[in-house]
Amino acid sequence: MNEPVHPQVEEFSEEQYDDLFESVGESHRMASFHFKEASKHHELAASAFDLADHTTCDMHAFMAYRHQLNAVQYAEIAVMEIQGLDEIEE
Fold first, then answer.
1. pTM tops 0.85, yes or no
2. How many domains does the chain have?
3. Residue 59 belongs to what domain range?
4. Among 1, 40, 69, 74, which one has the highest count of C-beta atoms within 10 angstroms of its own C-beta?
5. Average pLDDT rounded to a whole number, residues 41-55
6. Number of other residues whose CB lies within 10 A of the CB of residue 3
């Protein structure tokens, strides 16, 4: 009979765990990058709207929205790393 396959759980040391995450500065840089990309897509959406190209406008508006979501997440990660989770929850 076939025995169920169970994935092996990797063991991480604290040092390895810390290396998986970016620094606060990198989180801010990523937030900045995504806000810039969101701005570019909003400009492209506006131009497409002016040309009555609603499909392209919708696509760029959606891309702008996605970049905005990523930017906010990176900004929140940076704040949580600086302040700690306990201070934010209060």
1. no
2. 1
3. 24-89
4. 74
5. 98
6. 5
